[in-house]
Amino acid sequence: MEIGLYTFGDLPVGTLGPEASRRRLSEIVEAAKLADQAGLSVFGIGEHHRLDYTISVPVAVMGAIAAVTKNIKITTAVTILSSSDPVRIFEELATIDLLSGGRSELTVGRGAFIESFPLFGYDLGDYDALYEEKLALLLQIAGSDEGVTWRGRFRPALEDAEIAPRPYVKNPPIWIGAGGTPESAIRAGKAGVPLNLANIGGEPARFRPFIDLYRRSFRDAGHDTSAMKVGISSHLHVQKDSQTALDEFYPHYASYIGHNLPNGDNGWKVSRDDYQRLAGPRGALFVGSPQQIIDKILYEYELFRHDRFMAQIDIGGLPFDKVAKGIELLATEVLPAVRKATAGATPLSAA
Questions:
Q1: Residue 84 maps to a domain
Q2: pLDDT digits (tens, 9 = 90+) for 148-170
Q3: pLDDT band at 131 (very low <50, low <70, confident <90, very high)
Q4: Is residue 350 a part of any domain in this protein?
Q5: Exposure string (b/e) for 187-210, b if CB count within 10 Å is 16 or more?
Q6: Which intervals hold domain Luciferase-like (predicted)?
Q7: Is residue 20 part of a domain?
């Protein structure tokens, strides 16, 4: 199994401004360096268009990471495809692939936040139609080494258009990021692309039918099952002592959830009881000692037999020294144990 990290670059509440943003971006690049040196597999960069986040242009941060890393895969997490231009997105993917020597990926989704739609002149009434059309165009561009001809509703037509540059490796992975709706599972399966499920609140067991539907749709569409991959993304904080991890992460987690839900500061106020429940053995939140994180990853592996686990470990202004320690523990204690436990298991793509 691959273990990776992702970030949205959120700022602690009340710390807006250029200096805070500069420091936050520097920490993100440093975290990616540490993850690369420690042997983790993937580093993901999210996208928001608000002053309380530092990343509105993921490709710029990915380029900085590509320049200081050697092995780690670099992906978006996620690209809000509905309010983006698929031609430009593929050109960015290819450029990062060239800069990194073939380590770029793309994760696309509709976006849980909607600030980018009015910002770039899109009508929220076209929310689903935009995504369907732009995903189809992006996948057509990715699958073609020749000129692209295209007709659609939401952008000018393409006539044998040359899309440049081409990536360093043929067909860099394009994942679909989803929140658990059946339509998303079917869409990814029919398209024949990997699927990443973001689970930040629901009990993992209830997503088993969603993953099964993706795999069934993938096979029914006749795609090569070697490309059928599943990733699970969750919030995580790991420290040597479980109680320390719980106590020190709670204020950051509660602030992040309460401030960053679509309803803003009127969103979900996480009580300590809610938090403890989510962090329990069958909850969605990964907080505790390395062994507790191992146990929960393996519990989900029994449910999903997934290929990748992605952890958001820097939310709510968590101090960078805690983030760095979490990266170390993931790499030195969690990853080896998970790989040992899953070695030799038959991937569901081959079952």
A1: yes
A2: 999 999 999 999 999 999 999 99
A3: very high
A4: no
A5: bbbebbbbbbbbbebeebeebeeb
A6: 1-302
A7: yes
